[in-house]
């Protein structure tokens, strides 16, 4: 069993960064399953030669071949990709929870980059940047018109290089200009606090290599603060996923010992596997098992797991496992639906291919691919609707997405796309980016209500089903602080 995990630890799941726990070195030729298609390869060579001889201007061989590889891999599904030198480096940094930058958690507001929180002792923290600040310019370049990803790329760079930020701050009449020196930043993927006496909030923003150890430390600190915790909220909203061992370890912290957490299936022999709540499957760098030090109460404390459309991959593994074992009530909105496994194959010293090699399944055999996790209690982001979360796409919206092999996908309603887009934008304008764990966090408030046995303001799921008021009555009747998911679907 240990050797099986050793091979499969090369495989992990994620959306944006932190997709691979390690890299498997092997010659691609060894994986060929049959004779090469000589005629098609000849056509590829003919097109290559035609471009070299007839195109309007010279094109480098390396550019043509790189683009050919990129297109070939990208044509498979949304998560398979060719990783050039820069992309491969960023992936490894994300997995390790490290990057070179300023040390800020950011979002977008009114076209500007909004500071959600500076990371403690980071360059941004020392420069006096505060939560709520709006970055309006980066090195004199206006932020308006840039996407969040484009702005983040401008703020990242090489160590010891400078960037000048122009900041708009509430109650300040003039813009604040700050020069910050980029440094190697260590990300903290786990946050925790007591939100009310007796009730704890534990947030995982991404599954990285240090996540299990960091989570164990946070849980120990919570129980040191209050040994008689009455309820725990595990917040996985907008968690894009990450390394598979992290998802197994987080699940194992709350589930009975040695139970199955997730299984996978694909063409490769190593992709047909089941992963259990054992240290060998969530292996950490620590000399001893970090979960062994957790108080026994964490296995039984009543739990709510928060998810939304941005919860994907590894976070769906955790939510699915806790839901299948009725260990926690899942509250929020339907998750993203990324139920596929990516393997990283290095093809040169600094490039690799990220290839989808399997689907994953919950302990009860459910495939989450293109469907996601359906919450036990459907609660939108605010009392007035789903806010910015309503603007997000899901796996099933992506072109060439892998199908769900367990059940047929439901046909999508045909609506005027422009009209729907305008409706969502209008909806989002009524709300501001949410700071998770704050006093204004509506979903967290409903999770606490459920743990206390109080009414939960659930959302009407679909036309023809229970109304919101009926569902609220149901949730009041069924809400018991026992840490188990309700059997009745809503």
TrEMBL record:
Q: List where Basic and acidic residues composition bias occurs.
A: 459-490
Q: Where are the annotated segments for Disordered?
A: 450-490
Q: Which InterPro entries match?
A: ClpP/crotonase-like_dom_sf (IPR029045), CtpA/B_N (IPR055210), PDZ (IPR001478), PDZ_6 (IPR041489), PDZ_sf (IPR036034), Peptidase_S41A (IPR004447), Tail-specific_protease (IPR005151)
Coiled-coil region(s): 401-428
List cellular component terms (GO).
outer membrane-bounded periplasmic space
- Keyword Oxidoreductase on entry: no
Keywords, sorted A to Z: Coiled coil, Hydrolase, Protease, Serine protease
The terms under GO molecular function for this entry are: endopeptidase activity; serine-type peptidase activity
Origin: domain of life = Bacteria
Listed under GO biological process in this entry are:
proteolysis; signal transduction
Q: A Pfam family for this UniProt protein?
A: PDZ_6
Q: Which residues form the PDZ domain?
A: 88-156
Keyword Metal-binding listed: no
In the record, the note on similarity to other proteins reads: Belongs to the peptidase S41A family.
Question: What name does the UniProt record give this protein?
Answer: S41 family peptidase
Provide the species name. Answer: Undibacterium piscinae
């Amino acid at each position: 069993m240990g050797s099986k995990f050793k091979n499969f630890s090369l495989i992990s799941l994620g959306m944006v960064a932190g997709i691979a726990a390690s890299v498997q070195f092997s010659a691609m030729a060894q994986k060929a399953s049959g004779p090469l298609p000589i005629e098609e390869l000849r056509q590829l060579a003919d097109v290559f030669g035609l471009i070299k001889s007839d195109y309007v201007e010279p094109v480098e061989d390396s550019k043509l071949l790189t683009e050919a590889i990129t297109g070939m891999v990208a044509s498979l599904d949304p998560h398979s990709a060719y990783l050039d030198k820069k992309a491969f480096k960023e992936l490894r940094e994300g997995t390790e929870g490290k990057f070179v930058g300023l040390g800020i958690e950011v979002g977008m507001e009114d076209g500007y980059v909004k500071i959600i929180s500076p990371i403690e002792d980071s360059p941004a923290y020392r420069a006096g940047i505060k939560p709520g600040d709006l970055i309006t310019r980066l090195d004199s370049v206006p932020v308006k018109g840039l996407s969040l990803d484009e702005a983040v790329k401008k703020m990242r760079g090489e160590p010891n290089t400078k960037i000048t930020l122009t900041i708009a701050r509430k109650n300040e009449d003039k813009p604040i200009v700050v020069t910050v020196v980029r440094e190697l930043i260590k990300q903290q993927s786990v946050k925790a606090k007591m939100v009310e006496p007796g009730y704890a909030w534990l947030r995982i923003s991404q599954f990285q290599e240090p996540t299990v150890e960091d989570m164990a430390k946070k849980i120990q600190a919570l129980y040191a603060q209050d040994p008689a915790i009455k309820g725990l909220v595990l917040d996985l909203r907008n968690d894009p996923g990450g390394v598979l061992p992290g998802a197994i370890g987080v699940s194992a912290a709350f589930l009975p010992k040695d139970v199955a957490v997730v299984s996978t299936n694909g063409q490769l022999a190593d992709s047909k596997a089941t992963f259990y709540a054992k240290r060998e499957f969530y292996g950490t760098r620590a000399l001893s098992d970090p979960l062994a030090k957790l108080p026994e109460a964490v296995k039984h404390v009543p739990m709510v797991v928060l998810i939304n459309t941005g919860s994907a991959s590894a976070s769906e593994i955790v939510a699915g496992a806790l839901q299948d074992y009725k260990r926690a009530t899942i509250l929020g909105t339907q998750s993203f639906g990324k139920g596929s496994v990516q393997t990283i194959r290095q093809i040169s010293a600094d490039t690799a291919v990220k290839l989808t090699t399997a689907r994953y399944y919950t302990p009860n055999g459910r495939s989450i691919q293109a469907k996601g996790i359906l919450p036990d209690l459907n609660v939108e982001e605010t009392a007035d609707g789903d806010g910015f979360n309503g603007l997000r796409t899901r796996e099933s919206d992506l072109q060439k997405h892998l199908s769900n092999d367990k059940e047929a996908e439901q046909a999508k309603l045909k609506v005027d796309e422009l009209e729907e887009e305008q409706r969502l934008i209008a909806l989002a304008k009524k709300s501001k980016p949410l700071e998770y764990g704050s006093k204004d966090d509506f979903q967290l408030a409903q999770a606490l209500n459920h743990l206390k046995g109080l009414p939960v303001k659930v959302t009407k799921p679909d036309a023809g089903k229970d109304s919101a008021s009926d569902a609220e009555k149901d949730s009041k009747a069924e809400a018991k602080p026992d840490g188990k998911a309700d059997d009745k679907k809503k």
